Amino acid sequence: MRHFAIEFILTAYSLFVSSRVERLLLNARNSELSPRTHGLLLLSLHQLRSFGDARLPRGSRLREGFLQDVEDLENTDEGVRREDKLAVVQRMWRSWALVLGWDAIMMRG
Fold first, then answer.
1. pLDDT tens-digit profile of 60-87?
2. Distance CA 58, CA 42 (A)
3. Is 67 exposed, middle or buried (0-12, 13-18, 19+ CB in 10 A)?
4. How confident is the model over 91-107, as pLDDT tens digits?
5. DSSP letters of 39-90?
6. Which helix (H) or strand (E) holds 18?
7. DSSP H or E run through 96
8. Nearest-angstrom CA–CA distance, 44 and 102
9. What's the confidence (pLDDT) of residue 42?
10. Domain residue ranges in the chain
C-alpha cells in the first residue's frame, strides 16, 4: 500500500508540474518569454525530466515519447515561439494524461 501511495504522490506531482508549465506559457505576455518565466520554465522542465527518467520504464515508447516532449519544451532555438511550446503541452495532455494517470487524479479533484 505504501508503494502505491508514493507512486500516486509522484504522479500527482508530475501533473502539478505539467500544469505549472502550461500556466507559465499561458501567462507570458508575448511570444518571447521573459528571463524570469524562462528560468521558472526550465526548473519545471527539469522536474518533469527527472520524473520521466526515474519513474517511466527504461527503453519504453512511453518514456522515450514523454522525454522527447520535455526536450521539445526545453528547445531554445530561435524561432521557437511560446505558441509552439503550448502546442507541445497540449500534445502531452492528449498523449500522456490517460497513460500516466493524470486524468484520474484530476477527476478526484
1. 999 999 999 999 999 888 888 889 999 9
2. 23
3. middle
4. 999 999 888 888 888 77
5. HHHHHHHHHHHHHHHHHSPTT-HHHHHHHHHHHHHH---TT--HHHHHHHHH
6. helix 2-27
7. helix 82-100
8. 17
9. 94
10. 2-108
User: How many residues in the chain?
Assistant: 109
The cell for 29 is 505576455
Radius of gyration of the chain (CA): 14
Q: Which are the contacts of 44, defined by CB distance < 8 A and separation ≥ 6? A: 17, 20, 21, 24
**CA atoms within 13 A of residue 68's CA, in its CB half-sphere:** 10
Letter for the amino acid at 47?
Answer: Q
Q: Strand, coil or helix: what is 36?
A: helix
pTM of the model: 0.86
Closest CA to 53 of 41, 66, 42: 66
Residue 80: all three cell numbers together: 521557437
